[in-house]
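User: Structure please.
Assistant: Input sequence and predicted structure:
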Amino acid sequence: MGRSRRLTLAGWISLMITTLPAAAEPSREARTTQCVINAMAQACEVLQTPDTLELSLEDGRTIAARRLGRWRSSGKGATAVDSCNVKITLQNDTAYGLLVRSAEQGTTLTWPQLQIGMPELRP
């Protein structure tokens, strides 16, 4: 009896995974937004999923940040802030920093050499 129940449960899980609607998958659509890099504003293209943030800057540089560990949350509603440690891949280097998503201030990617703010990019 236990074996048939496991098979049924496994079959049900498999069915649920294969029938998820496309909306359940993370969005991979790029959008253009304003990036503030060390107090200088410029347009940039942003591709965001729950675990990654990829930026294409006007000068041709690309920056990719990948979440490490779990998200930490503080505040509620309009004051909600989510943050996580990230591995940042630059064209010629790798750094570690912090990604902060705020309902009030937008998104900020920070590491020792640079800070990039995206005030229009809110969670």
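The first strand starts at residue 30 and ends at 37.
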